């Protein structure tokens, strides 16, 4: 792949969009939290190879077996048993671990620590024997409770604890639920720690990232909690479309729900698939029943061949089969062993009525996630560094009849970035192209830094028109340039590419943002149909913000802005004064649409977007 240096305007705009490439911004209860769109891992430990890298201060610590290897502190008579790891210079980071209390003495705690600047100076998130979870500041023998939550704390049960430290803001979470957020300037930097006081406990799956909130792939919603639902202005694609409302229940370590299977990176195909005896993903896919869940433990799963949900392996309406990240953990499906080849996909879902939640798919030889089935949901997925489009919908085989093309799929609160093929022509963030049925929807999705386009809805004369696709409440930015600055001359570099081959398809494109893409923000791409293009914002794309050279599309309430000169928008179709297109000058709406781009997923999965720190609603 030939790389070209970024053009001068793009380099200048990089200063405006640092947050878009490296951090997301949202505000909850007056507290500003920032999150890298792609967090870097600073440290991880699963104790499978022992406990090297940790330093002990008190207690009886050993690595023991508990399904997998875990780090145990057995003494309940030690008031301060600690293990420390990491760097004393770490400042802003998130530390997460699974913690299982074994026994509590009087006043006992089992805790995860952050910013430990000394053996007895730290922030810690503590499980207590008094059925409380508390975010605390420890300074010698003085314990200050910063926030607390009443919560049943049972011995023999795993809990996922997470502490986020960002400047003076300290937040704690248990099993994905916010314990509390506090402001404290007592400790600026420090190591991570595992801590027990008058308690025995086990610890596992410790991770530290330079993120300051949880990446969007975790945690799964609690049982019975509704997943994101569209507003009245955003109907589901059809009554037949799958609903995510009950798709990702929290697993119970003690009594897993009926139909549940567990998989882990070290699982065995012949294993029972219990939490203590996990199986493999490929095996679980063939064994899970309609309405059942395959829970994937965190860690990296290395594959050399495609993992396939075969045609005919179906769930049912109201009883989807599910592949979900185990609560608070991030499974990464890594296909770097594959060569670049159209046959080498990552996860291929050719069955119907499946729900895939909270997984990362990376470095496949072709598509990261390929969707050939219908009535599926792909939620909180991340597809990255694949050698074709990150997540693509298309027919399974060239012989697949049009009645069986993928239809009524929902891609929800998903991210796709840094996908790049060797010639730079085909690797988009998301695509529904060549051959798809109707009713496919992308909602709250983020596509950025892909070598070709953010979205591609290309259709061809030799396959027939694709069905209507809806893209709503989503963002495309920096497409055409990878996160490392790499570019390819053959890439189209659009934010939203909406057609091809002069075939008219009436797509619906509403409430989206295109920002700083390498060619057009929104382009008809030879689709002469009557698309609905409404309430979109397009800012500082290298050529046109809106480029529609033919067709009868309807344009309402769209906004186009630039920070410098650029090509005028081109609109053919039904357009009225509700739009503010760019024809050499900015309109009044642009005064509130400047500064750095930030984004994050709210707890319910909705996409929160900011420009210059102000929340933007297209």
UniProtKB/TrEMBL annotation:
GO MF annotations in UniProt: carbon-oxygen lyase activity, acting on polysaccharides; metal ion binding
Originating organism: Catellatospora chokoriensis
InterPro entries: ConA-like_dom_sf, Pectin_lyas_fold, Pectin_lyase_fold/virulence, Polysaccharide_Lyase_9
Family: Belongs to the polysaccharide lyase 9 family.
Cell compartment(s), UniProt: Secreted
Entry protein name: Concanavalin A-like lectin/glucanase superfamily protein
GO CC term (a single one): extracellular region
Secreted as UniProt keyword: yes
């Amino acid at each position: 792949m030939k790389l070209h240096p970024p053009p001068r305007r793009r380099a200048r705009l990089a200063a405006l969009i640092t947050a878009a490439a490296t951090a997301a911004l949202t505000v909850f209860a007056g507290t500003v939290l920032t999150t890298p769109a792609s967090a870097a891992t600073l440290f991880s430990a699963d104790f499978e190879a022992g406990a090297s890298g940790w330093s002990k201060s008190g207690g009886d610590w050993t690595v023991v077996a508990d399904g997998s290897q875990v780090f145990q502190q057995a003494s309940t008579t030690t008031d301060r048993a600690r293990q420390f790891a990491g760097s004393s210079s770490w400042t802003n980071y998130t530390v997460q671990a699974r913690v299982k209390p074994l026994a509590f003495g009087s006043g006992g705690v089992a805790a995860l620590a952050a910013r430990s600047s000394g053996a007895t100076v730290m922030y810690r998130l503590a499980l207590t024997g008094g059925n409380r979870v508390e975010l605390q500041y420890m300074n010698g023998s003085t314990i200050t409770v910063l926030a607390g939550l009443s919560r049943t704390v049972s011995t023999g049960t795993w809990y996922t604890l997470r502490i986020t430290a960002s400047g003076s803001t300290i937040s704690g979470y248990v099993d994905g639920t916010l314990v509390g957020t506090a402001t404290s300037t007592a400790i600026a930097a420090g190591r991570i720690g595992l801590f027990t006081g008058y308690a025995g406990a086990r610890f596992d799956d410790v991770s530290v990232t330079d993120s300051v909130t949880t990446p969007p792939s975790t945690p799964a919603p609690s049982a019975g909690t509704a997943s994101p639902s569209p507003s009245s202005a955003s109907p589901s694609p059809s009554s037949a479309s799958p609903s995510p409302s009950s798709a990702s229940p929290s697993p119970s370590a003690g009594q897993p729900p009926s139909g549940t299977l567990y998989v882990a990176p070290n699982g065995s195909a012949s294993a029972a698939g219990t939490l203590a005896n996990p199986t493999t993903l490929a095996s679980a896919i063939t064994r899970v029943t309609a309405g059942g869940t395959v829970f994937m433990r965190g860690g990296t799963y290395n594959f050399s061949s495609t993992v396939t949900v075969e045609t005919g392996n179906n769930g049912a309406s109201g009883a989807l089969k599910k592949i979900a990240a185990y609560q608070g953990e991030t499974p990464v499906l890594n296909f770097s062993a594959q060569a670049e080849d159209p046959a080498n996909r990552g996860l291929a879902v050719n069955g119907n009525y499946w729900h895939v939640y909270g997984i990362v798919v990376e470095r496949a030889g072709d598509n990261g996630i390929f969707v050939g089935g219908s009535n599926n949901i792909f939620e909180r997925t991340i597809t990255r560094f694949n050698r074709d489009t990150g997540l693509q919908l298309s027919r399974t085989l060239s012989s697949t009849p049009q009645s069986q093309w993928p239809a009524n799929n929902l891609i929800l609160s998903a991210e796709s970035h840094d996908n790049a093929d060797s010639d730079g022509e085909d690797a988009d963030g998301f695509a529904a192209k060549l051959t798809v049925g109707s009713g496919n929807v992308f909602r709250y999705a983020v596509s950025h830094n892909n070598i070709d386009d953010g979205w591609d809805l290309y259709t061809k004369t030799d396959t027939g028109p694709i069905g209507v696709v809806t893209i709503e409440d989503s963002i495309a930015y920096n497409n055409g340039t990878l996160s490392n600055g790499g570019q390819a001359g053959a890439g189209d570099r659009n934010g939203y590419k909406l057609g091809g081959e002069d075939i008219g398809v009436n797509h619906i494109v509403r409430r989206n943002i295109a920002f700083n893409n390498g060619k057009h923000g929104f382009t008809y791409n030879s689709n002469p149909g009557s698309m609905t293009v409404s309430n979109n914002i397009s800012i500082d794309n290298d050529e046109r913000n809106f480029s529609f050279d033919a067709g009868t599309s309807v344009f309402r309430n769209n906004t186009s802005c630039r920070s410098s000169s650029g090509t005028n928008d081109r609109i053919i179709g039904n357009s009225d004064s509700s739009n503010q297109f760019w024809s050499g000058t900015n309109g009044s709406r642009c005064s509130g649409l400047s500064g750095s781009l930030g984004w994050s997923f709210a707890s319910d999965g909705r996409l929160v977007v900011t420009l210059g720190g102000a929340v933007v609603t297209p």
